[in-house]
Design a protein that fits this description.
heterodimer, A: 807 residues, alpha+beta, ten-stranded mixed β-sheet, six-stranded mixed beta barrel, 25 helices, 20 strands, B: 222 residues, alpha/beta, Rossmann fold, six-stranded mixed β-sheet, 29% strand, globular
């Protein structure tokens, strides 16, 4: 029977119950997705990073792609080496498009990674060197089927290959840009020399427990491989950095929405606290014991929380799959961690139970009469908002003035400032209402006085919390999209020509590239990944090797002007770093840092500081001479600027067809990275929209559910001769007043929270300068304010204005 | 006659900015089977006294012994048991739980007392018939008139066969005819069932139904 009473409680307020269940469900789904997202991004990036090298541990590469070796003798004798997989990798053209050919020895095709065949027979690769395996996406784009022929050309040679199998886009084919073609090494070699085996990349799979560094040292000491670059196949640090950069905005935004959803559970519960207290009073009055009363509410909240947690858990896999498909690829296979799902469900469940039961528990120690008539708040409760405000102010001052204040304290302040705002905003509302209550207009006067009469302003608090977080999410979306658009604009006129010989920099015309019609400028450079080691921490960075890069990319010059920095870079051993390193690690001009590239380390001097919004600390710049002197490396890329990058890439391909250059416009080359980053930013926008829906849904549910509270007042007003129109105006005014106060306070606090949020990103190793988009914040605030003000009209409040007999 | 209720030195002070002493040392004894009417002007403290006597509110000082239990020292569970078995309370209005129908409201204390429906259903229906609300048992409070709501509240009070019912202006929200009907029912409850009634009223006519009248003036019994 007690359980039946709980069910009656739920069914009596269906809107409140539905809102509670949905909010718990959203919180559970988002908490789970955010708990899982970083790991999924890491796993995916790890797969991308290792798509070529597969399970191998050590990679040997010829320093120039035109260098080849004919044998792999001695490698299998090194202690700890389990398998040696020699390959010949090269770019070639088919129908004017680049293909990445990967030639393996017989039987080695799946030693590094499984080939997931959809159609055909992979064993046919061993029967004929003309046979190849392609990906599903390539088969679709080139209209290939098993048995189809494929013309591939390189330089002056043009050969016909035959598709024997089509594979899924995973393993070697994961990114598939350019499309990967797996074939026999002799088949590839025919495009260069003839039908014999030559190699340019060798992969070593080590025995379990074998030392990678020992194997690398031993390989380097072997004379046959002394001219090759020997390095670890997997750059775990790079994957970690990339996955942090990619997942941090989504995780922060998602957790923000989840936290607000959880806060809404608490606020929805508080909305009906007066009504619940009266119910408690009635139950106590007819002999209900404390445990019975608690059990009634416990049963009610257990039902709602259970429903929310179950729906949230079901939603979770869908939300998570959508997140991954939106940011990475719909091809990605993911597994649901039962532990994380359970953890998220428990968080949602426990929060809901605590949110409902704690206020109820406080009523049980009060007398029946005290529960019927709400008492004035105690001094402690009255002082709490002011105390919180003071703590927030002091904490913010420390964050922005103390050295090292940013980071963890910033994260604390994001929460603290929001909480301080939410608990203090009713005081602002009451102050404004007090002023406006002196106006003669009856609607304004009644609206203001009704506001003053209310003991709680839970809806105002929901609106303010929701508005502030929504403002931040939309602004983050807008700002990041702006930066991203700027990045696309900056690179849309650039072509990267790789596969060049390191001697190209010695030619004044860059072996003719600079003379191609339409080339505005052409710069030889090195564009590599490396590791900067500082204070024991290794950070993977892009290394741009050319002082002329300062002309080509839109840097902001922090320590000196551009020309001075170019001069500084000409001194061998000097580098220029991003301001992020100065902010995050305290590296300054004059400091020495260790930079590791392809297993070689050198100590370089920081000679200047620049800033680039999107690269954001993921680069260092040095001159070609520095690379030659410190690492023995020459140019590996030519960066070409022209009016039409796509056309220019095609022109270079056709004019230098014999040299087999790999010329691609920059946006195509980094298409996957750009799309992923763009999707991440769009996802923040999607979360902002989810937030708007959540806030509006909770506000409407709360507004409709609390209607009976003011019924007596409205009846009295109508009885006193107030027209229905004026009554509606007064209600609209009340809502508008709430909107106005929410808007003004949220707007002001959003500036502070943005600064703290940017500071909190340092915890993820990310540094951003202060960015704030007041117009976006204003649009979001106005839209939510108007939406809230219109609730009395949209919810049809006027229809229910009838004179009712007072019972 | 046995003494059912004994109150000694009851004071009550409210802190509403300034301290207001509503009751200034009330002593009162009520015997089993009495029908006591507490009368007085608005703000005299009569409702506050009733709440304290019924254990709905606590006094600032003084002691109340009700049905053998000292309300200052009684445990929460014993107080709840007292309300389920011996003591009932009827307010002026807003007595009922809005999301329970009339039948569920009447049987609420019995349900909380873990009684089986088969044991009380017949008795409750008979009680409702006696009070003229048998055909309204499935209706929710907002579907009942003020008089019907009061009769449901009285039915709920009687359903537990209490020793005493406290009533705070039970006819205050009713018209004269409905008020009279309710008072007739109460008188019958007192006379036929022997239930002690302690009622606050500002109506001298309704106070006339009681066997004893106590007048409160300025926080003291006059």
């Amino acid at each position: 029977m007690i359980f039946k009473l709980a069910l009656k409680n739920i069914s009596s307020k269906p809107l409140r119950a539905v809102a509670t269940v949905l909010v718990i469900a959203i919180a559970v789904a988002l908490v789970f997705s955010m708990l899982s997202f970083s790991d999924a991004v890491y796993d995916y990036l790890f797969q991308v990073e290792t798509a070529g090298a597969g399970i191998s541990d050590v990679t040997l590469k010829t320093n120039s792609t035109s260098d080849r070796i004919t044998g792999v003798s001695g490698l299998d004798g090194i202690e700890g080496v389990d398998k040696v997989v020699p390959t010949l990798n090269m770019y070639a053209l088919s129908n004017g498009q680049y293909l990445s050919l990967r030639g393996f020895d017989k039987g080695d095709y799946e030693t590094l990674a499984d080939i997931d065949v959809v159609e055909g027979d992979i064993s046919l690769l061993d029967q004929n060197i003309d046979n190849v395996v392609v990906s599903e996406s390539m088969a679709e784009e080139f209209d290939l089927k098993v048995g189809s022929s494929l013309q591939i050309e390189s330089g002056e040679k043009k050969l016909t290959f035959y598709v024997v199998a089509i594979a899924k886009n995973n393993g070697y084919f994961l990114t598939d840009s350019p499309h990967v073609v797996v074939c026999n090494v002799k088949g590839v070699s025919r495009l260069i020399y003839g039908e014999f085996a030559v190699y340019n990349e060798i992969y070593l799979v080590l025995e379990e427990g074998a030392s990678t560094s020992s194997v690398i040292t031993e390989v380097k000491s072997m004379s046959d491989y002394k001219d090759m670059t020997v390095s670890e196949s997997k750059d775990v640090k790079y994957v970690e950095n990339q996955s942090t950069s990619m997942s941090a905005p989504v995780v922060i935004a998602g957790l923000g929405v989840a936290v607000i959803a959880i806060a809404f559970v608490v606020l929805i519960s508080l909305t009906s606290l007066s009504e619940r207290r009266k119910y408690v009073a009635k139950l106590m009055g007819v002999g209900g014991t404390k445990s019975q009363i608690l059990f009634i509410f416990l049963a009610e909240v257990l039902i709602l929380a259970f429903a929310g947690a179950v729906i949230g858990s079901v939603l979770a896999s869908g939300v998570f799959a959508a997140l991954l498909a939106a940011t990475l690829s719909s091809m990605i296979a993911f597994s649901i961690s039962a532990l994380k799902l359970f953890g998220a469900a428990v968080i949602g469940f426990v929060t809901a139970v605590v949110a409902v039961l704690v206020p109820i528990a406080t009523t049980l120690n009060r007398t029946v009469r005290a529960n019927e008539n709400e008492k004035k708040k105690s001094v402690l409760w009255t002082a709490l908002p002011i105390a919180l405000l003071l703590v927030a102010v002091v904490s913010v001052i420390i964050e922005f003035t103390a050295k090292g204040g940013k980071g963890s304290l910033s994260l604390v302040n994001v929460v603290l400032v929001l909480v301080a705002l939410v608990v203090n905003v009713p005081f602002v509302l009451r102050g404004v209402a007090k002023l406006l209550s002196k106006f003669r207009n009856p609607a304004v006067q009644l609206g203001s006085k009704t506001t003053l009469r209310e003991r709680r302003h839970t809806r105002l608090q929901i609106l303010t919390a929701g508005m502030t977080v929504t403002m931040l999410l939309f602004m983050a979306w807008s700002v990041t999209t702006d930066i991203f658009t700027g990045y696309l604009t900056e690179f849309e006129d650039k072509v990267l020509v790789t596969n060049v010989h390191s001697t190209i920099a010695d030619s004044p015309t860059l072996e003719g590239i600079a003379d191609v019609d339409g080339v505005k400028s052409a710069v030889p450079l090195i564009w590599r990944q490396g590791k900067m080691v500082e204070a024991g921490k290794g950070k993977t960075v892009n290394i741009i090797g050319s002082e002329k890069a300062l002309d080509l990319i839109d840097f902001a010059f922090v320590s000196d002007d551009k020309e001075t920095m170019k001069q500084i870079l000409l001194t061998p051993g000097n580098i220029v770093i991003d301001k992020a390193y100065q902010e995050l690690y305290g590296i300054n001009v004059g400091d020495k840092v260790t930079v590791e590239i392809d297993g070689k380390s050198a100590t370089l001097t920081v000679a200047g500081i620049t800033r680039h919004k999107l690269f954001n600390g993921n680069y260092i710049i040095a001159s070609l001479d520095t690379f030659e002197a410190e690492y023995g490396m020459g140019a590996d890329t030519v960066l070409v600027v022209s009016d039409d990058a796509t056309l220019m890439a095609e022109k270079i391909r056709s004019e230098f067809v014999k040299k087999n250059y790999y010329a691609v416009d920059a946006l195509t080359l980094y298409k996957w990275d750009a799309e992923s980053l763009g999707n991440v930013f769009d996802l923040v926008g999607t979360l902002a929209i989810v937030m708007v829906v959540l806030v509006y849904m909770v506000l409407i549910a709360s507004a409709v559910a609390s209607r009976p509270n003011g019924e007596k007042c409205r009846t009295a007003m109508l009885s006193a001769g107030m027209s229905r129109k004026t009554l509606l105006s007064s209600e609209c005014f009340e809502y508008a007043l709430n909107s106005l106060v929410s808007f003004v306070t949220s707007f002001a606090v959003s500036v502070l929270m943005t600064a703290s949020l940017i500071g909190a990103l340092r915890l993820f190793g990310l540094y951003f300068e202060f960015m704030y988009s007041a117009d976006v914040v204003a649009y979001v605030g106005v839209a939510l304010s108007v939406g809230y003000t219109l609730i009395p009209l949209l919810a049809g409040f006027k229809k229910k204005y009838t004179l009712k007999r007072q019972k | 006659m046995e003494i059912l209720l004994k109150a000694q030195g009851i004071t009550k002070t409210f802190d509403t900015g300034a301290k207001t002493e509503v009751l200034k040392g009330v002593d009162l004894t009520v015997e089993d089977g009495e029908f006591v009417a507490i009368v007085g002007e608005s703000g005299s403290g009569k409702s506050t006294l009733l709440y304290i006597l019924a254990g709905i509110d606590t006094p600032t000082s003084g002691e109340v012994v009700l049905a053998g239990q000292n309300l200052a020292t009684v445990s929460d569970d014993d107080m709840a048991s007292l309300r389920r078995h011996d003591v009932a309370f009827v307010y002026q209005y807003d007595n009922l739980v809005p999301h329970l129908n009339a039948y569920e409201n009447i049987t609420l204390p019995l349900v909380l007392d873990k009684q089986k429906e088969s044991e009380f259903k017949e008795r409750v229906v008979a009680l409702a018939t006696e009070l003229g609300i048998a055909d309204r048992l499935k209706n929710y409070p907002n579907e009942l008139s003020g008089g019907e709501q009061q009769r449901v509240a009285i039915a709920r009070a009687l359903a537990i066969n209490p020793k005493v019912i406290f009533l705070d202006e039970p006819t205050g929200s009713l018209d004269r005819e409905r008020g009279r009907q309710v008072m007739e029912i109460l008188k019958e409850v007192n006379e036929k069932r022997g239930v002690t009634l302690i009622m606050v009223t500002h109506s001298l006519t309704h106070a006339g139904y009681a066997s004893r009248r106590i007048e409160i003036e300025d926080g003291r019994i006059k």
